[in-house]
Amino acid sequence: MNHDTAIAVANVFCIANQKGGVGKTTTAINLAAALAAMDKRVLLVDLDPQGNATMGSGIDKNKVEQNLYQVLIGDSTIAQARVRSEAGGYDVLPANRELSGAEIDLIQMDQREQQLKQAIEHVLGDYDFILIDCPPTLSLLTLNGLASAHGVIIPMQCEYFALEGLSDLVNTIKRVHRNINPELQLIGLLRVMFDTRVTLQQQVSAQIETHFGDKVFKAVVPRNVRLAEAPSHGLPGIVYDKNSRGAKAYIEFGHELIKRVKKEALRQLARPRG
Ligand code: ATP
Ligand code: MG
C-alpha cells in the first residue's frame, strides 16, 4: 500500500446536504471506491437509516450482525460492526431501519452529539479516509456526523433553489464549528447530476462559482444512467462500468480531493503555533 505521510491519520469527511435525493449516497459510495482504487484505506459510515450506502456497497443491510445503531448506543464498537465491501474495496459501518431508533436513545445520553466521534477515535489509525453518508435532515444523527468530521463535502444539483438550501447548511456548519467541533471545515461543493444542455443549470453553476470560488470542485459529475443502475447490482458505479462518464468524473473527483487534502495539510504545517 502507498501511504502518504501528509495523510497518515484518517481524514474524516461528511457527505451532507439536508435536501433529499441530491446524490449524497452516490457520491459517498463512488468516492469511497475511487479512493480505495488509489490504494487508500477507506471506511464508509452509513449514517442514514435508509441504509442505501450499505446496500449500494453490496452488503445486505438486513443480514448484518451489528450496525451503526449498536455502536452509537455503546453496545458495540466499529471494529466489531464493520463489514468489508468486496465490491468496493473498502470497509462499511452498515445501517438499517434500526438506526432510526437511535435519535430517541441519544437524547437521553450525555454528550449525545459526540457518540459517533468517540467511536471513530478508536479506528482513526486504521484508515486514510473515513466518509460519512449523512441522511437528508439536520437531525441528531447528522449532528453526530458533523461533530466527528474534519470537513464537509456538499454534493448539489444546479437547480433554482439550490443556493437557498445551501445557506441553511452552511449556517449549520458554522454553528457546529463554533459550538461543538472547531476542526470542522467546508471542504468543497461538488456539482452532481449535471446536464450541460440545460441553460438554467449552467447559470446556477456559474452563480455557485461566484459565491464559493475555489471551494467548488473542478470535477463535475454528469447525469449518467450507469451511476443510477449500479446500486441495484450492489456495486459502486466506478466498478459497475468504469468507462462510463459518471465513473470517470468520480475518479477525477477522488484525485482532486486528495490534492486538496494535501494542500490543506501543508498549510496547517506552515501555520505558526500558539
Ligand atoms: P437521500 O437524501 O434520500 O439520502 P441522496 O442525496 O443520498 O438521497 P442518492 O441516493 O445518491 O441521493 O441519489 C438519488 C437518486 O439519483 C438515486 O436513484 C441515484 O441512483 C440517482 N443518481 C445519483 N447521482 C446520479 C447521477 N450522477 N446521474 C444519474 N442518476 C444519479
Ligand atoms: Mg442517501
From TrEMBL:
Pfam families according to UniProt: AAA_31 (PF13614)
Domain of life where this protein originates: Bacteria
Cleavable signal peptide: none
SUPFAM superfamilies named among the record's database cross-references: P-loop containing nucleoside triphosphate hydrolases
AAA domain location: 11-185
Protein name: Chromosome partitioning protein
